[in-house]
Amino acid sequence: MGKELFYYFVYPGFLFIAITGGILSWYDRKITAWLQFRKGPPFLQPFYDFLKLLLVKETILPAKGSKMTFLLAPVLSVTGAMLAGILIMVPATGIDTGFTGDIIVIFYLLTIPSLTYIIGALASGNPLAAVGASREMKLIISYELTFLLAVAAVIMKAGLSISMLDIIALQQDGAFIGSISGILLFVVIILTMQAKLGMVPFDMAEAETEITHGSFIEYSGSAYALIKLTKYIMLFILPVFLCILLLGGFRLDGIHILWSVLKVLGIVLLLTIIRNTNPRVKIAQAMRFFFIWMNLIAIIAIVLILFGF
User: Is 281 exposed, middle or buried (0-12, 13-18, 19+ CB in 10 A)?
Assistant: First the structure.
């Protein structure tokens, strides 16, 4: 029992995921600063930001709307992200839980943060937050289908296995990205991750210059600290999930530890470069992009898998 609690709450569970997510947030901000010829934040800045919001800043509740729902939404977002993170990290580190079908559960858990952002925004009673929630809903409708097709394609490549450990084991002789369909799926999942993380060019639900942080405009103090924590967690677990799906997972022995770390850093670097080299698109453009082009690429990848490519 003690070992299981350690797995879930310390390593590779809550504490490890939260700290690593904060470090990756610093890495993302540092790369952004370098691309813009700035110095960038100190290493511990994400943790300072989180602790300041959690312990120092006052949580101001909106005058209108549902206060209970408004406060509960960030709690649910952290819970969903953390549960998804644990289910991803446990097989990624080689721990066998005997849980078949975890990839399907992870897919649904990864949608919880975005859904709670919508719920919290609508509960705030702020019209700008409502605009952000509307954009988030439209974005979810468009990219979740693409994400589902990509995950289904990986399951097909794994011989219809729905176990994360089996998917990792099947890539020991060669990662799925080493095929044409694998390359196409990598492109699809990277751009879907960009949308799930709310990064440019798919940050229209927050859009500071248009709707002043949109969905989160009314959040402050400890409630906003939980949203920050959710974003830290998602920035870590989504690249790890991609590594498991297409890049052969992780090996935590010898020099392979360094290679595993470089995989995650490389994915976050790619996300950061995309964010800093593209303008924000309109919500209609984003929906058209996922519904037509990304879905088309995912379907082509599925067809190639059927023909052994």
Answer: middle
